[in-house]
Amino acid sequence: MKKCLWCFKNENETLFIKKAHTIPKSLGGQNYNQNVCDECNEYFGTKHENIYSIEEALKEGFNITRYRILLSSPNKRKTGGFKSRFFEIKERKGKKSVRYNNSFKFNSNFQKELCRSFKRGLYKMFFEELNRQKNIGYEDNFNFIRNFARYNKGDIPVFYFNRLYGIFMLTENEAATPFLLFDRMKYLFSNKKFQEIEFLGHVFGFPISSYDENEFKEYIEKSLKEKTTFFKDITLIKKFTDIDFIHSIMNK
Description:
The chain has one domain. It is built from six helices and six strands, in the order ααββαααβββαβ. It has helices at residues 38-45, 54-71, 102-105, 108-134, 143-149, 213-226, and strands spanning 87-92, 95-100, 159-163, 194-199, 202-207, 231-236. The mean pLDDT is 89. This is HNH endonuclease 5 domain-containing protein.
């Protein structure tokens, strides 16, 4: 009997009819998780107190990356124009950058809430793929993720690793139909408390269960040691633009 990964309701208590894409379909995601009920699936795609959904916040950021990568591909003629509610891509002297649209540029609360929704979406994508690929996620320690991503309780730090070079590995069609692989590269460091993922060339690190100060310091130290060859520093994400969605390192 199916049991929802998020709310723990089973097939006698709720419906499991709709396909719950782990990566938003609007991002090109192809995989879906059968253990997500319709109610929880709809929650992530529904606008609540904000003017956008959690999935839209995730899509808005990573679509910038997809557009940049596809423009650099041999099939760039099929890419089409970049479309976004919140951002525009500017080009000057061959270098591309991202700007907020004027209607959102000076709204600091918007930028803060969009960043929070993006982080929740990142956890949603990670957690549903973890369950789909490894058949885990119902354990109590993962309530740490559920409370934040599904029920909007508390706040969890998410880190972004800034690359030294504009070179990263993608499969031929990965930008068009992105997917998430765990332990993809040797420089990704994870343990029982923290997880790192790489998605469309971006590397993120975040806790997956409760941790103490010593465990946090140990994670940061070991993670940075693994990345000295390919990454220059680490950023605690506080606003949406802390993430280099345009891969500006490719401009150099």
